[in-house]
């Protein structure tokens, strides 16, 4: 079994009948959602809350009943991927541009499970550029201010044009060296007018389900 499928399917074991379940975005969350679709087909009663339009589309194809994020105040369990994580469950997310909805969903989740192949594990965050969602109006100001925090900011492009998020914003990928204090950096980035949210997820994950590269699951609690 491929590592993403292994961790994705394992996470679905935490789902119980009647739960409201946050559905993450990306190629790892895909496997959890596929499994949830199968479980729903076999009688599981849950309601999903998608973290992106892409996930919403997939969940609808699988007949998973959905609630709009605007109508939810509380989520029992969310399963989502990550782009980088450390032993303290600090994360970088947003490689697929879904970080804003993902962070909102995570913030109201009672239990937040991250699924990731072992290759994304690091000692200290920073190999992956931190995605930052910015309002188009303040793009240049945001880039300038982000650079002053010590990173190399780059506007994300897709097919030669600025990548536009589900919320009609833009993404600036900020490459730092080692991020020794992700909480402080996250606060500094979000204090910049024009920054909507950043991809550092600190003190949010309850559990990381990963693997050792040889097909064995590893759980970080
Ligand atoms: O915006 C995208 C999300 O944060 C994803 O969960 C993250 O990029 C990991 O995606 P993948 O599982 O495809 O590596």
Automatic annotation (TrEMBL):
The UniProt record lists the keyword Ligase: no
Domain of life, source organism: Bacteria
Pathway: Carbohydrate degradation; pentose phosphate pathway; D-ribose 5-phosphate from D-ribulose 5-phosphate (non-oxidative stage): step 1/1
Enzyme class name: isomerase
SUPFAM superfamilies cross-referenced by the UniProt entry: D-ribose-5-phosphate isomerase (RpiA), lid domain, NagB/RpiA/CoA transferase-like
Record text on subunit structure and interactions: Homodimer.
Protein name: Ribose-5-phosphate isomerase A
């Amino acid at each position: 079994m491929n590592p993403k499928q292994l961790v994705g399917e394992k996470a679905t074991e935490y789902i119980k009948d009647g739960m409201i379940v946050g559905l993450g975005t990306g190629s790892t969350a895909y496997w959890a959602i596929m499994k949830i679709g199968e479980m729903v087909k076999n009688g599981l009663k849950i309601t999903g809350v998608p973290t992106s339009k892409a996930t919403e589309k997939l969940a609808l194809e699988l007949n998973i009943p959905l609630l709009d994020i605007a109508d939810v105040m509380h989520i029992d369990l969310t399963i989502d991927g990550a782009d980088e994580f450390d032993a303290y469950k600090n994360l970088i997310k947003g490689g697929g541009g879904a970080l804003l909805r993902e962070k909102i969903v995570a913030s109201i989740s009672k239990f937040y499970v991250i699924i990731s192949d072992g290759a994304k594990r690091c000692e200290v965050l920073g190999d992956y550029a931190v995605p930052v969602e910015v309002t188009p109006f303040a793009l240049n100001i945001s880039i300038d201010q982000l650079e002053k925090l010590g990173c190399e900011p780059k506007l994300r492009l897709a097919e030669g044009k600025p990548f536009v998020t589900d919320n009609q914003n833009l993404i600036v990928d900020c490459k730092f060296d080692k991020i020794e204090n992700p909480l402080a950096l996250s606060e500094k980035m979000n204090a910049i007018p024009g920054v909507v949210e950043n991809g550092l997820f600190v003190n949010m994950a309850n559990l990381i389900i990963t693997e050792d590269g040889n097909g064995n699951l590893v759980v970080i609690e």
